[in-house]
Amino acid sequence: MPPSFLFATCRFGSEPALKREVAMRHGGLLTPAFMRPQLITWKVQGELPADFRFGGLFAQVSGRSLGMAETVAEVVALAAGTGAAHLHIFPREVPEEGVPEETWARVDAAAAEIQALLPLNDQKPLRPADYVLDVIIGAEGEPMLVGLHQYQPGEFKTPGGLSRASLPPEAPSRAWLKMEQSLSWLGVEKELKGLVVLELGSAPGGASHSLLSHGATVYGVDTVAMDERVLAHPQFHHLRVSAGDLQPDMLPDQVDVLVSDINLEPRIICQYVEKFATRLPPLGMILTLKINSAKVEAEMPAIIQRVRQWAPGPVYVRQLSSNRREVTLVSWGDR
Ligand SMILES: C[S@@+](CC[C@H](N)C(=O)[O-])C[C@H]1O[C@@H](n2cnc3c(N)ncnc32)[C@H](O)[C@@H]1O
Question: Which of 205, 229, 255, 300 has its CA 20 to 30 A from that of 220?
Fold first, then answer.
């Protein structure tokens, strides 16, 4: 049997964190093979257990590496017999300020060529256990990495976990992108109309702007000023206090979604959120958790375990392409 390899993609700058995480979760089973910016492969030592889950916070897409392809014909040959029902083609490098137009043009040209020879129906929504063929397009002249992953709930549905949305000029902050990406990951954009959201750490208002545009009513908690355009929206209410001083009588009778983007340690955020989540309880939760030290990184598994005890539904945590030194935790239940 030839050795098998796994691959994972990550956000720009998170390669060391991804390597550390894999060493901690799967050390002994996986040893690093090659590393390019935002893409790492590992050699599997022996056999992968049947219940193997890559897991972790920093891998955006992970799966089995089928090999490198120089041409479209080689991509098709590698895809043969995999049972892939979906095709995801995406760029390897996603700079912090977003994928440049010329890179998307190159990716789209490659996608058109591959789709002509490998006509997988990509209009169907992903269902759990569906196989996805990943084709990762590197720099000009670099071979493509062809991989295969099995979609599971909680994973990103877009190719590479990327979004093509760009920050609209009227959005008060980059948090707009994070919120749009979180809503699309949860698949709840259309459910927000009429829901009440409590956002801790809402200023200047990018996330609120996104939530309001989907028809939600937003109570924004922040001690600093909100952007004038958000403040003027009839469905926005500013509670100008610290989250720690927020009293139950300041809140509406029902809060459906709890959001936090406070720039404090995750341990403290979770203490604030737990207080509200156990009292309300909400239908959904979207939390940005800052990971700005190795200490915080190491604390994350215990924090996530704790959140699972009071979250409204399954808890998923990932670094979104729009996140900086942070990850996003989402949970959505049913009522
Ligand atoms: C990353 S910014 C939030 C960005 C915002 N969500 C947006 O969409 O534009 C973090 C915010 O957390 C606020 N913050 C920090 N500590 C806080 C606390 N204890 N209570 C409420 N807000 C807090 C800061 O004032 C800051 O505006």
Answer: 300
